[in-house]
Amino acid sequence: MSDDTERNGHPEPMSRAELLGVFAFWTMLAVLTAANRLADQREPALNVVSRTVPIALAFQQMYTWALLTPFVFWLAGRFSIDRLTAVRRIALLLAIGVVVAFSVDRLNSSLVATFLVRPRFAGSAQPGGRPGSGGFFSILHGPMILNHFILYIGVLSAGFARDYFFRYRSRERETARLQGETAQLEAQLAEAKLAALNAQLNPHFLFHTLNAVSSLVERDPRGVRRMIARLSELLRYTLDGGHEPEVAVGQEVAFLERYLEIMQIRFEDRLEIDVQVADDARDALVPSLILQPLVENAVKHGVEKVSGTGRIEITAVRHDDRLVLTVGDNGPGRGNVDNGDERGVGLRNIRQRLEQLYGSAQSLTFLERPGGGTIARIEMPFQSRTELRTTAIVSTEGE
Questions:
Q1: At what angle do helices 292-301 and 249-267 cross, to 10 degrees?
Q2: Which of 218, 247, 253, 332 is the most exposed place for a label (fewest CB within 10 A)?
Q3: Which range is least confidently modeled, 27-31, 79-83, 219-223, 368-372?
Q4: Which pLDDT value is given to residue 122?
Q5: How far apart are the C-alpha atoms of 74 and 80, rounded to whole Å?
Q6: Where in the chain is the domain with CATH 3.30.565.10?
Q7: Is this model's pTM higher than 0.85 or not?
């Protein structure tokens, strides 16, 4: 049932299977009624009147109700009961029921008067009653409006149950559709948030990189040209592929190495870089540009504050179903990190993107580095494009 159908008050039309079910139901009642009348030995008239008469009349009565059932079901759907219109609609349905019951009784009485052949002794007085009273004749000749009204109430109740079932199923379908649309909107909202976070990070990254370039303009013009060349490569990466929410660790590290080349030019011989990526972690998916703010933070709060050679260590390893990324420096320690960049754009952006992508299954922590310095540690679920592709294929085959 569509929503428009339900709102406009139009009942669900009966299907072919339902019509066959109605026909079978009333046929069964006709058979039982006919059998019961033939088995009634109290009516001596049955010894004279043809036995096909009560059978035919039983089927006629039940098939009359079979023809009326779709109409009564339509009434149940058209005048469904609710709190606002309950009394008025019930009164209307009961009035219609009285009319239907009276009409069916008149029809049956006319057929009985037309087709029933009375026996010769039908006019003779029966003990304790009027001529021809008792048994089959009393059933067919006496007014049965109440019986037909009860049948009407039963059919109407079945119609209400059917109408409620279709309305309930329609609401379930509508709920499922709305849930699907809600999930789709939530996914689009999540993608929009990630895109906004990426858009926020790119200007931040560019601003700090240009500051590094400007610091060498006067004292190392050749180094500036190399830095600008690396910066153009970084910008090309952010424009071509940086919009993706997740990239492989190998791709992220390749981008990071270009950024580190700029930092090495800036610090000349005062910066050492150590990058260790395990083979089984190279294909893992990580948020795009997730390591660059950590390296920037290590440079700002670590390398810049070291009088001698600064050192940055980057690792990516897999532990069962978890991926662990670390960025360490040999600076003065985590106190500067807690008081500084935790309130800045870079680390706040990392936390928000991790939360958006992995929920509570991720963490970003800062630890003391043995021998001095700080280690930024990211832990997240391990997943790769190969595993995601395999999962998608298995899911498709399962459907």
A1: 30
A2: 218
A3: 79-83
A4: 41
A5: 10
A6: 215-398
A7: no
